[in-house]
Amino acid sequence: MDEPTSTEPDAPEAPATPEPEPAPLLTLRDGLPEVVETPEALAEACAALGAASGPVAIDAERASGYRYSARAYLIQLRREGAGTWLIDPIAFDGLAPLQEALAGTEWILHAATQDLPCLREVGLEPSSLFDTELAGRLLGYPRVGLATLVETLLGQRMRKEHSAADWSTRPLPKAWLDYAALDVEVLLELRELMVDELAKAGKTEWAQQEFTHLLDFTPTVRQDAWRRTSGVHRLRGRRSLAAAKALWEARDEIAERRDVTPGRIIPDAAIVAAATALPADRAALMGTQGFHGRGAERYSRTWVEALAAVRAMTEDELPTRTPRVDGPPHPRMWADRDAVADRRFKAARASMLTLAEEHHLPVENLLTPDYVRRAMWSPPATREPAELADALRAQLGSYGARPWQLELVTGALTGAVLAGDVEPPVEPAEPADPSDD
């Protein structure tokens, strides 16, 4: 049957919601400066930056993905009254004059842990700093990339198309330099806004303690770094693991010597392919499916020798399936290995999530997760609450927890330790159903 025809007039269409106007693109205020690459130009930069006032914005560009080293290939600085300076650190043996010019000056960096090691390498070390990424985390911003913070707080968009460029290239293209200069263009203004926000949130002291802690930052040296080879988990047998280790170490030595990223010698997939097949000679190696890369044939003798050494290893010399770890096991194993520790950890995790939500910051910034695991796996022996709290505070402090963190979390973790000692009630067995007879 046909549907009845409506006699009511059509409802007017709702007006379309207008698309928000895109934020304006950030551009350089003072134009693009020349790159500093002579002693005379460096002296001029040092004089200008040293005579200026206030904090200095600093950024560094590396050649990640292209070079083995993490050295800086360009350093950008901006300070009120001095403008922006672009310095080529490769042109100098060190930057001691710049360090002297900036003595006692607060540095503004974004993600300081990325730049501090390569800046130290050229002789630059801050006496105090402000990290805009870390400030964003403490303020509870869900995304703390520089471009996102600039758009959120300053209402402008940043170009990011050259973030993965090979900054060891010489000469550096003008478009890349323009991009690099913009990174410090915004840091002074971001810091000013974030200082106010931290004060309003009552987190100024938290931030100061975090920034002071960063001054001593050194990158973690990974143990058994070869185990991070992509696909190594698919290898069967300890001799195949030994082959992956030997090939990884040989590749790493070549990459370091040539200062190229290891994946440009042979990719991880080639290491796994050769470790699986364990070819006995060059012909078999070059015929192994999946063994490829720029250095596959060039360094074939090195790969064959590494594999021959592995075939000669005794069983005792082969690596274990799982790495030996310093510290507690992974929490997923706790229930089987120590039920009390498992209850402690679960109570601690729930309390930490609640605290982080209350204070509007990521749980990993409330307290380093490894500190929580260590304290819950091996807590102090005492169970007298006040003594336990003091001992936990000392234990966490020895790991590196800051005073503001200890003030927030000690009570919750003390409660988690005590809660772990309480046996959960045993569920009464259900009475048998007579109908089952």
Automatic annotation (TrEMBL):
GO biological process assignments: nucleobase-containing compound metabolic process
From the UniProt annotation, give the residues forming the signal peptide. none
Q: Where is this region: Disordered?
A: 1-23
Q: Where is the composition biased (Low complexity)?
A: 1-14
What InterPro entries does the database record attribute to this sequence?
3'-5'_exonuclease_dom, Exo_C, HRDC-like_sf, HRDC_dom, HRDC_dom_sf, RNase_D-like, RNaseH-like_sf, RNaseH_sf
SMART domains from the xrefs?
35EXOc (SM00474), HRDC (SM00341)
Q: Domain of life of the organism in this record?
A: Bacteria
The HRDC domain sits at 237-317
The terms under GO molecular function for this entry are: 3'-5' exonuclease activity; nucleic acid binding; nucleotide binding
Q: Protein name, please?
A: Ribonuclease D
